[in-house]
Amino acid sequence: MPLSDRPTAVLRLRVRNHPGVMSHVCGLFARRAFNVDGIVCLPIGDGTCSAILLLVPEDARLEQMMAQLRKLEDVLAIDRAPEATSVFAGVAAHLG
Amino acid sequence: MQTTGAALTMRLLERQGIRLIAGIPGGASLPLYDALRSSEIRHVLARHEQGAGFIAQGMARATGRAAVCFGTSGPGATNLLTAIADARLDSIPLVAVTGQVPQAMIGTDAFQEIDTYGLTVPITKHNFLVRSADELLTVVPEAFRIATSGRPGPVLIDIPKDVQLAAIDVERLPEPGGPDPAPRFSHDDIGRAAAMIDAAQRPVLLVGAGIIGAGASPTLRRLAEKASIPVASTLLGLGAMPHDHPRFLGMVGMHAARFTNLVLEDCDLLIALGIRFDDRATGKVAEFCPNARVIHVDIDPSELGKIRRPSLGIVADVGEALRALEPRVAATPRTSWSRHVATLQATHPLATPGADDPLQPYGIVRATAELLPDDTIVTTDVGQHQMWVAQAYPFTFPRQWLTSGGLGTMGFGLPAAIGAALAHPGRRVVCFSGDGSLLMNLQELATAAEEQVDVKIVLMNNAHLGLVRQQQELFYGARFHASRFHAQPDFAAIARGFGIAAVDLGATTSPYDRLAEALAMPGPCLVNVPIAEAANVYPMVPPGGANRDMIDGGCHAAQ
User: Judging by beta carbons within 10 Å of its beta carbon (0-12, 13-18, 19+), is residue B61 exposed, middle or buried?
Assistant: First the structure.
């Protein structure tokens, strides 16, 4: 199903910036068979932290996924960021 | 203080109160072992890293304190994975320390290089790849903080060899890492819980490992007595209530006594304390406690609503929550519900055929329990013997019962028993095992012999993977395949070969007396108990079935 045809949500995570953090975050989704449609990640501030935006399907399991994400030591904060949806449209323009 | 990464690691582990580490050295961990040699920490040399992991688990499960295992890079780390995953599923505070190839060689497919960090992401609570000796000052205390905070779990620290060898000048050592304060909970929620309990006609307490982790057994007992609420337990909650307490219903779920599942079927309020609604406990979730509202108390917020949506969920240390709750619940005899429970108990008890014959499953469990002190620590492997022990052993104290619940790891029992015996030198330890399971970490007999631990292995030997055989019989049209061992080792001879005393109850006319002699011996001993291959564990809820639909093998099993 194309992205635009089903409800999506955007999660914003603040994480510790080190080489293993993406594997913790993405692995959590993969293990629980929860698809991630889009990822944008950049260092923020002095670079000790990064922000990750995740474009994910809005389904009944999302609340549980957020609870699991909160348990990751490297995840310092998580919230929903519907206003950031446009970021993915901007990225899409560069992906061909 | 001028030191090295390896010596600093030992110093930090000493400051965490670690007195004993189980492990196996290898190339990438030799600097750690060189530092361990001059440390006050004692090392127990396991014979396989999985054994080391389970020895550490045995220590952690028996004491409630974090325990440490060591492995080298590559196969040392991969061999630890099962024990780490097992600790994850059963929420055991384990700190695994592995050596890694020098950082300059990471990513080059160096000898004994494996991505230990990547492999352990899904099976640890958290993991670290230490990139400088300086990082050890934060990583080691953090590892212990994480392992013991909230819902405990395993933490892995991977230390490259160059970090172990690096010189470092340490001005001040950090404070040891300890558990964070438990989450704060709302006393309004406690009031709501008390009101729901007071209003319930047919409440049941269902308790799990969380009660034991929180040390909440005495409060649980007070609540059950005051408000006349029957208490059922998950597999890992056994020992939280004494087996002979009048309110205790025993274990719930797939191999529960029939009455236990029937009481849960009838309840109108399920008070779930430190449990995670595991499928072996609930059976078909949609039909578990179908008429009940649920109060769920757990320290892990992600457990509330994960499987069963509670009417009231409280994120808290279950001990703190119970201490707040108990005074606010009204004392009541709850006569009619108590009578109903007693009737179910009388009409649908656990059938224990052969309980007076030490060559039958319930008989050997009963005889062993009779011959050992009340505070004996009991470990098991996984399979039929595990369920027979869970059903029939008279557990009295928390942390008396160490078993692999979530991961269900065959091979757990012997090394866990060694760990428990090392942690509690004055206590008796018995490991019930099966002939399939024991072979999976048999090499640890050498560790048991070397340490002369007081571990008695009671081996229920049916020359089968018994629970596989049972499922093939019941659910696969008795089409047995790959569940029979055609080559049957002489386990008594094997034990003697390792330097361990052994007794074969099949080769004596007075098995009870021989068992008594074996259990009374000092040091490790193996007791081989031949049992019938057709003996099944009953009752049994078919996998995927509702708990009310138990296959009752009473007559079956008696043959």
Answer: buried
